[in-house]
Amino acid sequence: MLGINRKLQELEDNGILIKVGLVGAGQMGRGMVSQIENMVGMRVVITADIQIENVVHAYTKSGVADADIIKTDNPDEAAEAVRNGKVVATTDAQLVTSLTEVDVVVDATGVPDIGAKIAWDAILNKKHIVMLNVEADVTIGPLLKKMADASGVVYTGTAGDEPGAIMELYDFADALGFEVVALGKGKNNPLNLDANPDTAAEEAARKGASAKMLASFQDGTKTMVEMTAVANATGFLPDKPGMNGFVSDVKGLPEIFKLKEDGGQVGNKKIVEYINGIAPGVFAIVASEKDEVNHEMQYLSMGEGPNYVLYRPYHLTSLETPISIARAFIYNEATIAPWKGLQAETVTVAKTDLDEGQFLDSIGGFTVYGSILSAAEAKEQNALPMGLVDRNVQLKRAIKKGEIISYDDVVQTKESTIWRLRRMQDDTFAVKTAKPNPVKA
Prior knowledge:
Blueprint: H1 4-13, E1 18-23, H2 27-37, E2 42-48, H3 52-61, E3 69-71, H4 75-83, E4 87-90, H5 93-98, E5 104-107, H6 112-124, E6 128-131, H7 134-151, E7 155-157, H8 162-175, E8 179-187, H9 201-207, H10 211-218, H11 221-234, E9 237-238, E10 246-247, H12 253-256, E11 271-276, E12 282-287, H13 291-299, E13 307-312, H14 321-331, E14 344-350, E15 368-374, H15 375-380, E16 393-395, E17 410-412, H16 417-428
Parallel strand pairs: 1-2, 1-5, 2-4, 3-4, 5-6, 6-7, 8-11, 9-11, 10-11
Antiparallel strand pairs: 8-12, 12-13, 14-15, 16-17
Helix pairs in contact: 2-3, 6-7, 6-16, 7-11, 7-16, 8-11
């Protein structure tokens, strides 16, 4: 199998481009467009955003000339532009997923319901779909993967995001026959369950980031979602609800992941975890029962055993997404997908005392945060998946701070794509989770 760089060069030499359609021209989308403009064998031929100037900005910053950017929502005009070597800026996401000239669709919106619709439409149009939207993936990924498999296309998460980077370590270690003890990531800020856009505003302004996005990292929701994606791909589970959140440097990880009865700090093997102190890296803890393997690992300065750490000190987020695009198109392979089905769930927890009749907001907001449970625990508690939370979800009773919110506690006042697909997912698979409530009359 040729390396992706050589395979892309081969495509370029043969006059072939992987034609990419992007939805979402925010920070992640802009970076990806610029990265792909540096590459051979691939181009982002159409991008959609609710603000068309965001698309134009993404293309001009990547070096595309103004004259080569065609603004249109018309399918015929868009198709002609792509055939003529131009790029298309549009406000219509469905144009991206339906355009014949597009080979691979990328969702970079970060909004679970929008991502659900993009993925569904892409699969129905028999296009590979790359999800930068982990929140949508952990909510309805098993269904989307099943539909993609049936349609002969690839459903995948992205290289560069922590779940994809962790999966690369797991695949490497598992292929070599190591026992994989734990998988995890660094968290680059202390856990603050009370974080919200107001408390995050000052730091967000300094970093030029969204306060809501920063709050979703600080309150742990993003970390819980990312490790839920890893759980659904590998079958590994949290050691306890919410994970442990140990503090360590890389050198200390092998000792931490010994079982408690062996002097370590965990109760189980095959777990997902996050660590304060090693961000932005990801890791796999591996072991072997073979004396010769342990001797070689010690000779190679990998530690004294029985656990060893494989550590990757970086992940380049959407700048690595082109690798997943190429793998899907060239090799028909996913970087990461929910191969094990729904193994874990990021459930909804009250961030503060909430009143009966109050509407929830969304990830990184003022009302709720996410916490990882096993799927069995989530089902037992009828817990509401965090990916279903939006401003159309209303509380039927008062909820105390720190309490898990269940399906029974809420009513949906407006139907959405992700709720419909979640009901379909629950009906499709043998191990059912709680069904969402019907729409409020």
